[in-house]
Amino acid sequence: MKAVILAAGKGTRMRDLTNEIPKPMLRVQGKPILQHIVEGLLSVGIREFCIITGWHAEVVESFFGDGSQFGAHICYMRQVVQDGTGKAPELAKAFAGSEPFLLTYGDILVKPETYAEMLKRWNSGKFAGLVTVTGSEDVTKGGLFFFDANFCLKHLVEKPSAAQLAELKAQGWLKPGETAWYNAGIYLFDPVLFEFTARLQKSPRDEYELTDALTAMLAAEHPMAGQQIAGRWVDVRDPEVLASLQE
To answer: What DSSP string runs through the chain?
Structure first.
C-alpha cells in the first residue's frame, strides 16, 4: 500500500500563520502536522509516499527530503493551480500505478490505529474505495455520507444547504435522533478512481471536488466501504484548533 498526501493549500483560515509556510507544516507538540501523519502511516507498514505540494512547496520538500531519514521513500508532485481536491490526486496517478493507495488531506490528525482499522476493513472485501467518517447529531457540519446495513456508501451530499437538508429528511436519508456521518477526509482507493477524476467538471464553488468523483463512482456501482473513526480525529482548520492541540 502506498500513500498520497494532499498538502498543496495555503490554509487561509490560519491567517498570517501560513504566510511563509503551508498549513501542513504548522507544528503540533513540536512536530509538523505532516510529520505526525507520515509517522502514523509508517507505523502500519506504509513506506512509499507521494506528497502533493503547492503553497511554499519548498518548505515541505526540504524538510522531508527523499524520506530516508524517516525510513520512508517520498516523492513530490506540485499542484501549480489550486483548483480543488478532485484534480490533486491525479498528479499521483503514475506513482499509484496499478495498486490501491491511501489518500489523506495533510491537515487531518488521527491515531495510528485508525490507519490499521482502515486497512483491515479494506482487506475484508472487494472495494473500489473506502471512506472514513465521524459521527454527530449536528447535520450542518460538512459533507454528509449515508450507508446501507453493511456500512457501504449509498449516497452523499457535500456541504448540504438548508433546502438540501429538508429534502434529505423528506426522502428518509436523515432521521431524527440518528447519527449523521461526516466525511473525515481519509480514504483508500483502487486506481479506478482516476477514471472518474479525469471527467470532473467544476462545481458551483469553481473547484474540482473529490466528492463529485465519489458520486460518479456510486452511480457506476463501484462498491465503497465506510469506516467510522474511533477516538481522536482532528481537522486542524484554524488557529483556535491548532492552539488547543498544544496543551
So the answer is: -EEEEEE----GGGGGGGSSS-GGGSEETTEEHHHHHHHHHHTTT--EEEEEE-TTHHHHHHHHTTSGGGT-EEEEEE-SS---TTTGGGGGHHHHTTS-EEEEETTEEE-HHHHHHHHHHHTTS--SEEEEEEEES-TTSS-EEEE-TT-BEEEEESS--HHHHHHHHHTTSS-TTSPEEEEEEEEEE-TTHHHHHTT----TTSS--HHHHHHHHHHTT--EEEEEPPS-EEE--SHHHHHHTT-
Domains of the chain and any CATH numbers: 2-244 (3.90.550.10)
pLDDT tens digits along 30-48: 999 999 999 999 999 999 9
pLDDT band at 65 (very low <50, low <70, confident <90, very high): very high
User: Does the predicted model carry a pTM greater than 0.85?
Assistant: yes
Distance CA 212, CA 200 (A): 7
* CB neighbours of residue 130 within 10 Å: 25
CA distance 108 to 54: 17
Distance CA(4)–CA(13), nearest Å, equals 23
Q: Distance (Å, rounded) from C-alpha 7 to C-alpha 117? A: 23
C-alpha span between 77 and 90 (Å, rounded): 10
Is-contact 225 190, C-beta < 8 A? no
Q: Are 5 and 115 in contact (CB under 8 A)?
A: no
Nearest C-alpha neighbor of 24 from the set 14, 34, 15: 34
CA-CA distance, 118 to 187, in Å (whole number)?
A: 8
